Amino acid sequence: MARVRLVVLAAGLLAAACGGEDTPVVIQPGPASLAQLTGPWQAEPFALDPALWSRVEQTCRRDMERRPESVAAVVDVRGASVAIVRMVGPGAGMCDTLHVLPSGEVTGAGGGWTAGDAEQLRAIGVAELADPQVGSVGGGDLKVQGFSVVGRAGGQIAAVVIEPAGIPPILATLQNGWFAGWWPTIVPPNQFVDPALAPDVVVRGYDAAGVLVDEVQT
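Now predict its structure.
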């Protein structure tokens, strides 16, 4: 029941953030189908079945040449054949974009980064959002591009809403103390050369009662 209440809460937060009224929500428990993962982008994330999660994790680890001990802390999938992955542990890093194929195979697409073998993460408060990082989405054979935000969330944060400037709010994936989400848009060619081209994004964290407890801006 707690999971169902949280889904309804998150949908209500999206409606409120968009300035609309809360409307009934059809809840679809369980992992997404391949048709959903390769279908249209949506503002709310999907869940992955364990086999596909493992495939995504292994692809990111292989593409970024990470150590076997590195694991996926958060995987965000919301259609358009895209997965974004934050790896933690020895050999942490980020896969900005992986491509989920209709066959269920997962291949590399966009870039990413890697950290040293001993990534040091500072302690954060239970109601704190921290370390939001903007990345780009696209590459390979994907027919979409966009931006992503990945960061950390304290244990009392039950839902995270990402609000890019000029884009309707999206509900972040929230897993293992991390949040992540992405949205389709045109990415300027020199986005990482000129920091002024990076989008302005507000990230808001809510507790289980729907109360805003923290917000950060990129």
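Residues 2-217 form one domain.
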